[in-house]
Design a protein that fits this description.
The chain has 6 helices and no strands. By secondary structure, the chain is an all-alpha fold.
């Protein structure tokens, strides 16, 4: 089962004609300018399948729902990373969570070492 965030959508808000190039750019993480230049280059080289493929994709691909537009660059980079390599993204999230856990443990150790009453209360909870 795929998430709504990992599917390909036409991006009509950031697109020029049908939003196909903007959708490809969003899905792959490649800058939309390079995707557009690649499409134009393929057309100029005489690739006969590009124009019909573009319009078929424009007709059959779903339009990106407004609730899926990114709020900031970090969110965009995260979801593009998920689409490119879900395993690597999961590994990065686990690493960040371990780092947060380690830092919280350091804060706890600092406050507990300076407050014997707090240290005794925490030991009672364990």
């Amino acid at each position: 089962m795929t998430s709504d965030r990992t599917r390909f959508y036409r991006d009509k808000i950031n697109g020029k004609l049908m939003g196909v190039c903007a959708g490809i750019a969003d899905y792959t993480g490649i800058d939309v300018l390079w995707v557009r230049l690649g499409i134009v280059g393929l057309v100029m080289l005489g690739a006969p399948f590009i124009v019909p493929a573009y319009f078929l994709t424009g007709l059959f691909a779903a339009k990106k729902p407004t609730h899926l537009y990114y709020t900031d660059n970090r969110e965009q980079q995260f979801w593009q990373g998920v689409r490119q390599s879900p395993t690597r993204t999961a590994r990065q999230v686990r690493s960040q969570m371990r780092d947060i856990d380690r830092r919280l443990a350091e804060v706890e150790a600092y406050y507990v070492s300076n407050n014997p009453r707090l240290s005794a209360e925490i030991e009672q909870l364990r």
